[in-house]
Amino acid sequence: MALAPHAPVAYTTLMRVVGVISGTSMDGIDVAACELALSGDAVELRPLGFTESPYPAELRARLLAALPPASTTAAEVCILDTEVGRCFAEAADAGIADLAEGQADLVASLGQTLYHWVEDGRARGTLQLGQPAWIAERTGLPVVSDLRARDVAAGGHGAPLAGVLDALWLADEPGVSIALNIGGIANIAVVGGPEPLSYDTGPGNALIDAAADMVTAGRQAHDTDGRMAAAGSVRPDLLKTLMDDPYYARPAPKSTGKEHFNAAYLARVLDDFARVGDDDLLATLTELTAVTVARACHAHGARRVVAAGGGTANPALMSALRNHLAERDVTLCTSDRLGLPAGGKEAYLTALLGFLTMHGLPGNVPGTTGAHGPRLLGGITPGRGPLALPEPAATRPRRLRILRPQQEWRPCASR
């Protein structure tokens, strides 16, 4: 696949969309603006820019406090849904002004996941906060939101939804490619195999963040730049115990979240061990993420891995992952090399999902979520004016082209 220069195209439709999402790390809201269009059997996406809007410290603390296994109340969920919605509204409005030159047609929101209900390996329900009415009221634009629930109702996991972007984006790549996202939870999308497949491999940053918070008594929410992990050594006994978690042996498609991999989970594991040094703990958890991701990639015969998400900013994690992938000559690069900024990819995915819904196109890939079939995702909250939908698309897209001005294709390479 080559990056196409931005040039006039006979589009059947063109829409400027702002995507907003907050991942399981709950750091803040990722915002991306882009132009999206249907052209033949392709979706064409031109990134306009991305940014992050941090949560207020008090709101982030309340969100973290509401995560399982903690108990909460209906009143607290209502308050959080409203406050997250207001923050999303402010972030989307700023994204329109700062990234989209003050002009947009649609906002798409994946919200803030608070609980993902998985029982006996089957997703039963999922809850995302961030009331879309606040976004519509602030921006005046229609909002596509609640994008996971329909997939769950159709027998899927509602996650990871990145499979739809990755299956289109990497469709023309030779061999088996894997798109990796490292957020609080790590997930992969396998493209080029017998069929598209996507699933959560396990913790990405979730346990690393929990450990950083624990060993610094709350002074540090992350292992900034992987410094603590780089200063420590992997504890093989602890790593083996962590690797014995039954989740890793479950067949795909599967999903997980912080309702499983959280601070309480880590504390239970550590109860069975004598003193584990702070740096050694971070090194071991970093190795856990790298090993579980690499093993999943090896299992599907990947030749290249294209990584995105907050974890790509952690040099210790990326170095460990690169080393494990290289054991079978698998190359690793970030999504920036293929035209999508690693830090903004999930927000661009959100924009794409909203665009597909507005054009009557499915936003899930059954092989990646386990749903019974393709489904239109989400609900639409009207903006200030009457809701006017585009004509439903006559052709289902088969590929995604990223449009960047005067930029040449650069293949993935180890670095």
Under the CATH scheme, which architecture of the largest domain would be assigned? 2-Layer Sandwich
Helix/strand-derived category reads alpha/beta
Total helix count?
Answer: 13
- Work out the count of structural domains: 2
Q: What is the CATH C-level name of the largest domain?
A: Alpha Beta
**Fraction of residues in helices?**
25-40%
Overall shape: it is globular
Question: How much strand content do the residues show?
Answer: 15-25%
CATH homologous superfamily of the largest domain?
ATPase, nucleotide binding domain
Main sheet characteristics: 8 strands, mixed
Order of helices and strands: EEEHHEEHEHHEEEHHHHHEHEHHEE
Computed over alpha carbons, the radius of gyration is 20 Å
Keywords: ATP-binding, Carbohydrate metabolism, Kinase, Nucleotide-binding, Transferase
Enzyme class: transferase
Family: Belongs to the anhydro-N-acetylmuramic acid kinase family.
Protein name: Anhydro-N-acetylmuramic acid kinase
Structure commentary:
Strands 1, 2, 3, 4, 5, 6, 12 and 13 form an 8-stranded mixed beta sheet that branches. Helix 2 runs parallel beside helix 3 and helix 10 packs across helix 11. This protein is α/β, with parallel strands linked by helices and 415 residues long. The N terminus and C terminus are likely disordered. The protein has 2 domains: 213 residues, Nucleotidyltransferase, domain 5 (2-Layer Sandwich), CATH 3.30.420.40; 169 residues, Nucleotidyltransferase, domain 5, CATH 3.30.420.40. It is globular. The chain is built from 13 helices and 13 strands. Strand 1 and strand 2 form a beta hairpin. The longest helix has 26 residues. It is 33% helix and 23% strand.
